[in-house]
Specification:
With about 475 residues, the chain is α/β, with parallel strands linked by helices. The chain has a domain of about 130 residues: Isoleucyl-tRNA Synthetase, Domain 1 (Orthogonal Bundle), CATH 1.10.730.10. The protein contains 17 helices and 15 strands. Strands 3-2-1-12-13-7 form a six-stranded parallel beta sheet, with helices on both faces. The protein has a four-stranded antiparallel beta sheet with strand order 5-4-6-8. α11 crosses α12. The longest helix has 29 residues. The radius of gyration is 26 Å and the shape is elongated. The two termini are about 45 Å apart. The relative contact order is 0.11. Bound molecules: zinc ion (ZN). Zinc ion binds next to loops.
Amino acid sequence: MNNKKLYITTTLPYVNAEPHIGHALEFVQADAISRYFKQKLGRDNVFFNVGTDEHGQKMLEHAKKEGLDVKDFVDKYSQRFKDYCKLFFVEYDSFYRTSNKEHHKAAQEFWKRCEENGDIYKKKYSGWYCVGCERFITEKELVDGKCPDHAKVPELKEEENYFFKLSKYKDSLLNWLDENPDVLKPKSKLQELKGIIADIEDISISRLRENLPWGIEVPNDPEQVLYVWFDALTNYVNVLGFGSDEKRLNEWWPGIQLFGPDNLRFQGCIWQGMLASIGLPHTQKLLEHGMILGPDGRKMAKTLGNVISPFDQEEKYGAEIVRFYLLTGIVTYGDSPYKEDDLVNMYNSRLANNFGNLLNRVIHLSNSREVEINDESKIEKDFKDKVDQYEGEIQKLYEDYEIALAGEKIDSLADWGNKYITEKEPWSKDMDKENVQNILNNLSYLLSIVIKYYIPIIPVSCEKAKEALEKKETIILFNKI
Ligand SMILES: [Zn+2]
C-alpha cells in the first residue's frame, strides 16, 4: 500500500434500467471522497472510477423488450448513467464500460491467471438459477423457495460449467478480516461478512454460450462465456492496467471500494477470493453505504407509492441541494429515509441561514466599512487556533470517510463564526476601523476553511463563494426555500 496515490471506485450498475436515487448516493459519496483527497494529495494522485456493467441475460431480455439490438441498448443506457453523473456533478476520472474490447481482453487474462493457479475446474451442475441475480442460488439462501432479493421462484437448471475454487480461500479470507478488522465500514457488518465467508462454496463462473450469447468468451472454450459478475468484478483492477500495464496497476492498487448492502457478498468475499487467486492484495477499504428508504421508513417500492425520483427532486430543488442532502442528511452508513422536509430544513438552516448568512455579513461589512480582508498574516492567534482545531476534526472525519459527520462539523464551524460576529458586533458605529478589520479578517479566514471543506459536498456553490469572498462581491448564494 502506498500513501501518495489513492484509487477509489464505485460498483458498476447494470444498465438495464433507469438510474435511481441509490445510484446517486453511491456516486456522490465516492465523488466527495475523491474531491477531498484531490484537494489534499493533488489531482493527479487520485483516480476515481465509475462505469456500467453491460453483460448478462437481463440485458438481452430488456433489449428485446425495447426492440433494440443489445449493443444499441447498452449504449443508450450507459449514456444515461453518464448523464446522471454529470447532473449531480460527479467528476470521475474514468467511466468504465464492460462491453469495451479492452475489458474483454483483461477479463480473459484474469481468468487465465486463476486457471494457471489451479483455481478453475469444470463440473456438471444443477441448481436454482435466479435471472434477477444472474446467478445460481444455494438452497440455504432460498426463502419459501424463492430468491429473497427478487421474491421469484428461481428456475431449475442443469449445465456443465466452470467453477472457481473459492472455498480454497476461506481460511485466508477469515484471517485477513481478523488481522484487518477496520477494512470494512461500518464495523457492524463485519460479523455478517465473516458469516458469508464461513459458508462459502466453490462457485460457477461460466455459462453455456447458447444460453447467454451476450458475454465474454472463456479462454480456449468457445462454447462457454464468463459469468457476468466474474467479468464485471475484474473491472476494478483492469481499469488500472491489469494485464496490460502492471507498473501502473501496482501504483494504484489496492484502493477504496464503495457499494450497497446487497453487494457485500460480491465485494467482501467473492472478489477478495479472486484477488487472492491471482496474487493481488485485498481491497484497502470496503465502504458499504446504506439503503435509501422511502419517506415512510420502508423500503422503496412502486406498490407502496414511496419511490423517490432523483429527476423529480433535481427539478424541484436543483442538483446541488439534492447532493447536499444525500451527503449530509442521509446517514453515510446504514439505512436512512429520504424526507423532503428534512432536506428543506437542513438546507435552510445550514446553507441559507448559517454559511450563506455569514458570508454575506462579512462581505457586506468589509465593503461598507472599507476594510481589507483575506490577509492570513493578520489573523489573531487565539482565533486561528480555534479554527485550526475545527479543521483538524473535519479532516479526521473525511479521512475516516464519515462524510455526513464532516458536513455537520463544518456547519458547527460556520455557526461558531456567526456567534463570534454577533458577540463582537463589528457593525456598531463607534467601533474603530482597526478593530472592525481584525474581526472581519478573522472571519474571512474562517470562511475560507468552511468553503474548502464544503467543496467535496457542494462544489459549484463553493466555487462561487470562494470567488465572492476573494473579490468581496455581495452574493446571495442560498435563497431560502
Ligand atoms: Zn434474485
